[in-house]
Amino acid sequence: MKLIVTGGAGFIGSAVVRLAIARGHSVINIDKLTYAACLDNVAEATKSPSYTFVEADICDAAAMTAAFETHRPDAIMHLAAESHVDRSIDGPGAFIETNVIGTYTLLQAARQYWEDAGRPEGFRFHHISTDEVFGSLDATGQFTEETPYDPRSPYSASKASSDHLVRAWHETYGLPVVLTNCSNNYGPYHFPEKLVPVVILNALAGKPLPIYGTGSNVRDWLYVEDHADALLKVLAEGAVGRSYNIGGENERTNLELVQTLCAILDDLRPGPAPYADQITYVADRPGHDARYAIDPTRIREELGWRPSVTVEEGLRKTVQWYLDNEDWWRALQNRDGVGQRLGTGTK
Ligand SMILES: NC(=O)c1ccc[n+]([C@@H]2O[C@H](COP(=O)([O-])OP(=O)(O)OC[C@H]3O[C@@H](n4cnc5c(N)ncnc54)[C@H](O)[C@@H]3O)[C@@H](O)[C@H]2O)c1
Questions:
Q1: pLDDT band per the 50, 70, 90 thresholds, residue 347
Q2: What residues line ligand 1, using a CB cutoff of 6 Å?
Q3: DSSP state, 277?
Q4: Exposure string over 135-157, b if 16+ CB within 10 A, otherwise e
Q5: 243 forms bridges with which residues in the sheet?
Q6: Residue 217 has what pLDDT?
Q7: Which helix (H) or strand (E) holds 147?
Q8: CB 294 within 8 A of CB 143
Q9: What number of CA atoms fall less than 13 Å from residue 170's CA on the CB side?
Q10: Nearest atom within ligand 1 for CA of residue 57
Q11: Are β-strands 124-130 and 75-78 bridged in parallel, bridged antiparallel, or unpaired?
């Protein structure tokens, strides 16, 4: 298949690009190259004649129309987004622009291309979203595809808006869409402002390992390469108009996750003292959702997909990757806002 992938220089998008190229697809990677992007993430793919890079903003209607007309894809996988909750608290405008207006712009460009091409049944607009649109759970229960939306941060509200737009374009114009809502990802090439890389890199630097609040917030962790595999599965086999929740069935409190990372580091790169001694509790994020948990029954039973690694296996691979790829993460540590506490609600 010929795929447009938006946000393919980011964390998850680049995993999709690498896997899609490895499986023989052609990829047109459209990315604006924001602070979160790194073209090294797709260095391997650039060697392939099946890979094309287009530097463009998804809010640029003319550029998106031209991309569809020039490349004539079989499908688009839309991952470009502003993705960091803490940054959405300090500056929500960019989240509304990219996540809402950008998705609208892409939907219009895709619709025009699809209609001009005679409304081919096989075309897909695959919208990649988050479990955060469903809000926050108490100690029990899981998000299903039927859970009502209840976003609580500027980030999750902007993603919820984009999900609604994608469904509306399907219902109103017949655009063949599929949607996925995934839990927290971790793995190689994770930008060093998110919890897992922050913990690994601060631990190695002898810095505090910051835990928001009491560390009791629960997340369901999925290895990024498993997510990319699930996305290609949904693209190929998902039913039009349907959404699929993707999760790792690996619930951990933030404190448990950090302790696990410390134990892996103690094993792979022993320091003078256990890394867990560096754990430090800091002020909580405003509106910090207590718990997310995914019920992945639909994708498992309808599409036969399940994750390939446990969270312990995936975290060990991830820590080893950061130990082996210092050049990659050192270059990103000078970027704007990295290493600073963001999203305290005081700006
Ligand atoms: N990270 C997670 O745990 C997670 C979980 C579930 C869903 N998601 C969703 O997956 C997608 C990818 O997340 P990620 O963690 O890889 O994000 P990321 O921040 O690592 O990457 C986002 C990419 O999008 C690009 N981008 C941003 N604004 C753009 C614009 N206006 N035009 C073109 N490109 C633009 C950036 O340059 C970057 O390369 C997002 O839609 C996110 O909501 C993420």
A1: low
A2: 6-7, 9-13, 31-34, 36-37, 57-59, 79-83, 98, 102, 128, 130, 159, 182, 184-185, 191
A3: G
A4: bbbeeeebbebebeeebbbbbbb
A5: 179
A6: 92
A7: none
A8: yes
A9: 21
A10: 32
A11: parallel
Residues 186 and 221: their CA atoms lie apart, in Å, by 7
Helix (H) or strand (E) holding 8: none
**Are residues 40 and 52 in contact, defined by beta-carbon separation less than 8 angstroms?**
no
Q: Both tokens of residue 281?
A: 């509790």
* Structure tokens belonging to residue 340: 């600073």
pLDDT, tens only, 39-69: 999 999 999 999 999 999 999 999 999 999 9
Report how far residue 338's alpha carbon sits from residue 174's, in angstroms, rounded to the nearest whole number: 42
CA of 34 to the centre of ligand 1 (A): 10
Q: Which two tokens stand for residue 67?
A: 């991309």
**Joined tokens for residue 159:** 């993603």
Average pLDDT in the chain = 96
> Can you say whether the dihedral through the CA atoms of 188, 289, 347, 283 is positive or negative?
negative
Separation CA 64–CA 90 (nearest Å): 29
Active site residue 31: no
Residue tagged active-site, from 31, 57, 86, 132: 132
Measure 268 CA to ligand 1 centroid, in angstroms.
30
Q: How many CA atoms lie within 13 A of 224 on its CB side?
A: 23
State the DSSP string of 201-269. Answer: HHHHHT--EEEETTS--EEEEEEHHHHHHHHHHHHHHPPTT-EEEE--S-EEEHHHHHHHHHHHHHHHS
Is 121 annotated in the active site?
no
Per-residue pLDDT band at 346 (split at 50, 70, 90) = low
From the candidates 155, 189, 244, 322, give the one annotated as an active-site residue: 155
pLDDT tens digits, one per residue of 95-129:
999 999 999 999 999 999 999 999 999 999 999 99
Q: What's the pLDDT at 342? A: 86
Q: How far is the CA of 13 from the centre of ligand 1 (A)?
A: 7
Quote the ligand 1 centre to 7 CA distance (angstroms). 6
* Spatial CA neighbour of 198 closest among 119, 280, 103: 280
pLDDT value for 290: 87
Average pLDDT of 4-23? 98
Q: 155 an active-site residue? A: yes
